[in-house]
Amino acid sequence: MTPRVQPHISLHEPLLFERSSPGKLAYQLPELDVPAVDPSAALGADNVRSEIEGFPEVSEVEAIRHYTRLSTWNYGIEYGMYPLGSCTMKYNPRVNEAVARLDGLAWAHPYQPEALAQGSMEIMARLEAALAEITGMDAVTLQPAAGAQGELTAILMMRALLKKRGNPRKKILIPDSAHGTNPASAAIAGYAVENIKSSETGVLDVEALERIVNEDVAALMVTNPNTLGIFEENILRAAAILHAKGALLYMDGANMNALMGVARPGDFGVDALHLNLHKTFSTPHGGGGPGAGPVAVKKELEPFLPLPRLKRSGKKWAYDYKRKYSVGRVRAFYGNSGVLVRALAYILANGGPGLRRVTTDAVLNANYIRKRLEPYYDLPYSSRSMHEVVFSDERQAKQGVRTSEIAKRLIDYGFHPYTVSFPLIVHGALMIEPTETETKHELDRFTDAMISIAKEVETDPEMVKNAPYGTRTSRVDEVAAARKPVLRWKPAS
Amino acid sequence: MYSEQFRYTKEHEWVRMDGDIGTIGITDHAQQELGDIVYVDLPKVGTKITQGATAGSVESVKAVSDIYAPVSGEVTEINPILTDAPEKLNQDPHGEAWLMKVKLSAPSEVAKLLSAAEYQKYIEAEK
Amino acid sequence: MRYLPKSDSERRAMLDLIGVESVEDLFAHLPEEVRLKRPLDLPAGISEYEIVEYFRARATENANGYPCFLGAGAYYHYRPVLVDTVVSRGEFLTSYTPYQAEISQGTLMTIFEFQTMICQLTGMDVANASMYDGSTAMAEAAMMAVRATGRGRVLVARSVHPEYRAVLRTYSENQGMPVEEFGYVTAAGTIDLEELDRKMDDLTAAVIVQSPNFFGIVDQVRAAAEIAHRRGALLIVVFTEPVSLGLLRPPAEADIVAGELQSFAISPSYGGPHAGVIATRDKYVRQMPGRLVGQTVDTRGNRAFCLTLATREQHIRREKATSNICTNQALLALMASVFMTVYGKHGLRELAEQNLAKAQYLVGRLRPRFCGKSFNEFVVLTESKTPDDINKALLKKKIIGGLPLGRFYPELADSMLLCATEMSRRADMDAVAEAFQ
After folding, report:
1. Which ipTM score applies to this complex?
2. For an interface test with C, which of B40, B44, B61 has the most C Cβ atoms less than 10 Å from its Cβ?
């Protein structure tokens, strides 16, 4: 008989604060080359704090083991497929990390003289130009920190344009399949939100749009392809309806990875859109961020772009702060430059033809998954799929198993779950986006896993409902977390 | 399940009258639909609420549902137990987990609400 | 196409299964008029080596290795090697927002620790999992105060970072949220309490002050709190230099603290990505924007963590959400966490003391513009020279000087904001002092 042993400590890593013990250090500062100063004398005794109670006291070895052990409780793209719909979890090329860390770029201060920041400014200018070409738009700002801030920036610009034309108008139209950021951004820009129901085929209902659009409507915010992964084939007509009434067309470009080199928003009537560099352009998600949400616009919106703007000054780049119609600043400094470096590196690596190939492979992968899984999962909208496919749990729900539970079971098969319960218009949605960076082998393994789960649901639904089984942490009690929020560690009293 | 002593709304609230004071709650059907309730947001005492308008909200982990005032009036009391024990709303929505008491400004509104039988019929049709 | 992992024969097999002839057939349903009929006007893809060469060339067009005395919201502090080691792990770098708690415990637990350390530093009860940067954190804090008080007006000190104030104006403009400013005392460089008191009214939702303020001066948080609270407004305290909290009394009188954590191992990176954060009192947590991680248990009864109180957020409450923020700065928050772990209780204090000593050394050789107490930044008069002349002279010695203040404060056109940190060498500081002679 093999004696039982305790599993390694790494599965039971405590919180930093529990690991701390007085006197342990993980740092050493150089000797001061100037005279030491008494803080109380320099700052005033009542401005000086006592020690930071509870702050960590660990050694360097304990610190690195702490974070390394914790990292093993995560899943990453470098482990395997991460098919979160709408999130575009593609491979994040490592060279992008290397170039973003080059000293001259990473340690550039935002206020260093323009003459000594020409490299960073050139990178931004080149990225602006590339994104304008990819989207077919006239001008690009790289400032917004993420997609949602891009939305806000663009809607503020639209508001400024409409105001200049005499009436900022009152509301923004948003399809019921939209990301939640769309209505939230419209609200910050001071607009009321009116939802539009999608048509039976899962696209914008242009008949309804025609009835609703009037002089109170500032813009329509549409995602294309939409969150069902369906191309909005009536987009030209929608643009015409809006423009005829003096309203504008905003596109949420979260799904631009389905269009690169194939179709350009600027060619189908879009007045402004944002891009998520952390989706289409491969910058890593980092457990929630950072991203960047550049906004591309048509000429008529260009005067309203946020401050400052890059401009040519002789042979050099400079900033233009004197722009009468600008919506102002949306953040400090110029943008998430470190993210911009990574995105440009990605565009340079792929080049024009490569970006088109990225799109066609992404669409190929999604359609392959759709074909393989259609016999097992209900497909509520049968319109052609682009880069992602949305199933519903209708069949599995008959056995009492819901999308969230199928998702948890998928973890046992070695995959990160797909996006659960979004878009909201599909009851029990399973939203699957493979991206172009999955191998056929991985797609086969994934679809085999999904098929296997569909069979398990038929034979042993209870087993599926209690998954996952193979993780360090079993099903987490989110209800208890919300009822009695514990949002920080406190020492045991 | 649905007491004849209460009147109901199509938005799944109930009201029980005691003189000109109405006690308001959400129905058992509502709590079932919401799932595990984690938080209840109620108006302050003294707030004037209007029939059909929002008078608070009930939250599960991943959804927020508005509470629509079944009657108009001034809030005189809110149920203190819900602050620390929102789960009571799942356990006893028609009793211990009432939401608020209101001094009615238009008592005639009550007559327009659904009877128990009407409400029962309504929720069955909704399924 | 080295990032595309399929061979042509694999593509062929997939197309056969789907039942189409070519990949173009998958786009056949796109209307003719919307299609791009030409290749993108971008050059062909280049090798990894060429990419590295391209960016190296750009990096050399920037200032490289110059000692720099700029602060003003972005600071030079040494980044322990451990920080890059940790954030380069693919499990942290390439993972998504931890919605699926069972395979995201690493990210979730580090955020929980981050929230805790921010509370310990700031004296607040609860902190969120990060905002885009300090400037948007401040704007969101103001919006939060408006929700919490049911009032609309915001009073912000002119000694708050000028770009933060500009962002506040952009955010507030269409929300029925008038923003007014109050000044600073010309001698001390601290907020003008009399002007604040005069401008307060019962419609004011929040008073915003920064400490150390844009001039580097430890500001009058307690007095501001007293004035704000007397009229039922909230006090928002902003920080741009969190190293100061290693030494300075936390702004415990504040109702909301909004700050920038770039100093904690996040490279200045020409202005971003940095990491904002909001911390507050328990009673305002439901008005707070951004993600929150909470502690709970799994079905085996073991401690576990998950995202919580998500009903505040846009994906659930949509136009009624506390903010539109979705993507945040999680990886930068992790960098800040590792930094706080490495320095810890003793190191952060010693680090702050070194910053103070360096700054005191430099300011001791110059003429300070204000008499208020400063931490690692300070405003100096440039006497007979202009700030630009001094900076030009320093650039000849390959040193980047301070920030001329005339751009943001016309009345301070004869002044410069300088910053010294633990990375400032004595010899370079001597050179700066000489340039003023």
Report:
1. 0.97
2. B61
